[in-house]
C-alpha cells in the first residue's frame, strides 16, 4: 500500500466513526500531475487543520486556531511508511476534535 492509498483507507475507516461535530473533506491532485498529492481537511469544535500528502511520502500538517486562520501548528516531514501517514492523520483528528 502506498502513501496516498493509506490516506484513502484512513478516511474511509474514520468517517464511519465520527460524530456530526467533525467534518472531513478530501481533495486529490488532478490526473496527469508529475507528483500526485492528496489533501485531507478536518474541522471540528471551532478548529481546523489540513494534512497534505505527496506520493513520495512528503507531508505538511497545519492546524488553525479558533476563528483565526493563522496556523498554530505547521510542520513538514517525510514519512517513512504508510503507517506514519495514518499516525499523522490520527494526530490531526485528535488535535482538531478535542474539546
What would your notes on this structure say?
With 99 residues, the protein is of the alpha+beta class. It has one domain. It contains two helices and five strands, in the order αβββββα. It has helices at residues 3-15, 82-97, and strands at 22-28, 37-44, 47-54, 58-64, 71-78. A five-stranded antiparallel β-sheet has the order 1-2-3-4-5, with helices on one face. The mean pLDDT is 88.
Q: Give the overall silhouette.
A: globular
Largest sheet: 5 strands, antiparallel
Order of neighbouring strands in the sheet with most strands = 1-2-3-4-5
Poorly predicted sequence stretches spanning 5 or more consecutive residues = none
Helical element count? 2
The number of domains is 1
Q: Radius of gyration in whole Å, from Cα?
A: 13 Å
Order of helices and strands: HEEEEEH
Overall mean pLDDT: 88
Summarize the amount of helix as a percent range: 25-40%
How much beta, percentage-wise? 35-45%
Distance between the termini: 33 Å
Task: Output the keywords.
99 residues; 38% strand; single chain; alpha+beta; five-stranded antiparallel β-sheet; 29% helix; globular; 2 helices
Task: Kindly summarize this structure in a few lines.
With 99 residues, this protein is an alpha+beta fold.
Q: Could you outline the blueprint of secondary structure elements for this entry?
A:
Elements (H helix, E strand, L loop, with lengths): L2 H13 L6 E7 L8 E8 L2 E8 L3 E7 L6 E8 L3 H16 L2
Helix pairs in contact: 1-2
